[in-house]
């Protein structure tokens, strides 16, 4: 890809490379329908002019054009979060990290704790047109990464809460609290999803973790998902939660709220206790 060479030679920035990849693929896929004006009085996207400029402009001139285009156009069959993420990156507001490979889940976890997310651009042929981790091709994987970037950055308060949650998961993982369960392939797969591919509210993340842990333990007991856990296994979960609460330095009220995940009395008031913890402590990251 022409833009890959220009990026490798530092003619265009990381953000400009990713945005160019997105725009050129979108043009090739949809032709003149690739984009339309976002506002009644905006300029109609010019397919030939944009392509020519993308392939020739560099530095600030290219960035300024990208800022105008990404902010003013509506892209065919693309959710608005994608150009918003690219625009935030080009503007320097969202510190995304360009990669040309697929990072491991633990790498993504570490990056999120540091306040960034990877955006992978696979531009080499034929790899770019082959499936990438369940996505049809490199373009679809880029879209996936940009949608997650939006979920991670669009709300500054939730961004800090997510970072706090991911830091706690990393501490627990490094302390070995999940080791016994990661031998279960299905739990390991869902845990990887939680730490690298699930940018959501921390309380939702905790409830997801509890659910996949219960599934793991039901498999260990040879039971179906509709059967109850044994008393000993329920105590094992409670012990794990108490260990996490100690590691995470939770107050008693917060510990009780975390323990409530295991019962049927986890309601709005309990969720608010945990929410307050994540959203007030999120700034420690």
Task: Tell me what you see in this structure.
This protein has 285 residues and is mostly helical. The chain folds into 2 domains: 2-154, no CATH class; 157-284, no CATH class. Helix content is 62%, strand content 4%. The chain contains 14 helices and 4 strands. The strands form 2 sheets. Strands 1-2 form a two-stranded antiparallel sheet. A two-stranded parallel sheet has the order 3-4. The chain is elongated.
Major sheet: size, sense and barrel closure?
2 strands, antiparallel
Largest sheet, spatial ordering of strands: 1-2
Average pLDDT works out at 94
What is the helix tally? 14
Rg of Cα set: 22 Å
The fraction of residues assigned to DSSP E strands is under 5%
Identify low-pLDDT runs.
Answer: none
Task: State the total count of DSSP E strands.
Answer: 4
Strands, helices and their partners?
Layout: H1 2-8, H2 14-30, E1 35-37, H3 47-56, H4 59-72, E2 73-75, H5 81-91, E3 97-99, H6 105-113, E4 118-120, H7 138-153, H8 156-174, H9 179-182, H10 185-196, H11 202-220, H12 231-247, H13 252-259, H14 268-281
Parallel strand pairs: 3-4
Antiparallel strand pairs: 1-2
């Amino acid at each position: 890809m022409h833009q890959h060479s220009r990026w490798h030679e530092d003619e265009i920035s990381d953000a400009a490379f990713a945005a160019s990849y997105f725009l050129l693929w979108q043009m090739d896929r949809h032709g003149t329908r690739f984009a339309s004006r976002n506002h009644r009085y905006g300029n109609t996207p010019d397919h030939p002019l944009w392509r020519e400029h993308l392939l020739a402009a560099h530095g600030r001139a290219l960035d300024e054009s990208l800022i105008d285009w990404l902010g003013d156009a509506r892209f065919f069959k693309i959710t608005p979060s994608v150009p918003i993420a690219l625009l935030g990156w080009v503007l320097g507001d969202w510190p995304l990290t360009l990669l040309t490979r697929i990072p491991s889940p633990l790498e993504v976890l570490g990056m999120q704790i540091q306040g960034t997310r990877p955006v992978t651009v696979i531009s080499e042929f034929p790899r770019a047109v082959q499936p990438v981790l369940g996505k049809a091709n490199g373009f679809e994987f880029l879209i996936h990464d940009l949608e997650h970037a939006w979920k991670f950055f669009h709300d500054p308060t939730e961004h800090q809460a997510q970072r706090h949650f991911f830091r706690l998961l990393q501490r627990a993982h490094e302390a070995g609290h999940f080791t016994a369960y990661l031998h279960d392939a299905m739990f390991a797969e869902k845990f990887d999803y939680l730490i690298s591919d699930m940018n959501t509210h921390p309380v939702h993340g905790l409830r997801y973790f509890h659910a996949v842990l219960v599934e793991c333990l039901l498999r260990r007991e040879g039971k179906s998902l509709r059967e109850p856990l044994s008393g000993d296994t329920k105590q094992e979960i409670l012990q794990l939660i108490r260990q996490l609460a100690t590691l995470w330095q939770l107050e008693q009220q917060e510990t009780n709220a975390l323990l409530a995940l295991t019962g049927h009395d986890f309601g709005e008031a309990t969720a608010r206790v945990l929410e307050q913890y994540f959203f007030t402590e999120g700034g420690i990251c």
